[in-house]
Amino acid sequence: MTSPAQPVFLRMTIRNLDDDQVFFSNENESMQAVEITPGEGNIFPKVEEVLPTMEIGERKSLTLEKEDAFGDIVKEAVQNVAIENLPEELREVGSNVSAQTQNDQTVHGTVVAIEENAAVIDFNHPLAGKKVEVEFVVVDGSEQ
Q1: Is CATH 3.90.245.10 the right assignment for the domain spanning 8-71+127-143?
Q2: pTM, rounded to two decimals
Q3: What CA–CA distance (Å, rounded) separates 26 from 20?
Q4: Domains of the chain: which residue ranges?
C-alpha cells in the first residue's frame, strides 16, 4: 500500500467520454510518470481517495462526473478580446492563447470565434462540463 504523505507515481490516461477521445496519457514508458503527493490537492479527489489502498503495479479505472473532474463550464470564462490585442498568428479559430490575470497567474484559452473587432476566447478547461474516465496505475518511483 502507498503511504499517505509519500509521493505516488502514476501512469494515467484521461479520456473524454462524450467522444471517447484521449485528452492526456503518459502510459508510454518513454514519458515520465506523474508524481502525486496525497493531500496536496493536485489530482482529482476521487483518484486521491483510492491511492492509499493501492499497490505498485495495481491499475484502476474511475468514471468521473463533470463536478468530480474539471467542473462546469463557466460562462464568464468566455471573453471578448479586442482583435488588435491578439498577435496576428493567433487570430484564427482553434488557436491556443495564454494570458496573465490580475493576480499574475497564467491562464490558457482557445479562440472559439473571430468577430469584426474581437476574438472570442474560451478560458474554460477543454474538459469542463464533460464526464471523463481516468485510468491509472501506480508505478515504482525509483524507475523515473
Answers
A1: no
A2: 0.82
A3: 17
A4: 8-71+127-143, 75-122
